[in-house]
Amino acid sequence: MKLTVCELPNEPDELASAWERLVEHSDESGSDLVLLPEMPFYRWLPQTDNVDPSEWERAVNAHDEWIDRFDELAPATVVSSRPVVDGDARRNMGFFWEPGTGAVDIHAKHYLPNEAGFWEASWYQRGDGDFSIAHTSKARIGFIICTDLWFSSHARDYGKQGAQIIVCPRATRASTLPKWLAGGQVAAVVSGTFCISSNLSGTTADGGHFAGVGWIAEPEEGEILGQTCPKEPFLTMDVDLAVADHAKTTYPRYVAD
Question: Taking the model in full, what pTM does it have?
Answer without folding.
Answer: 0.97
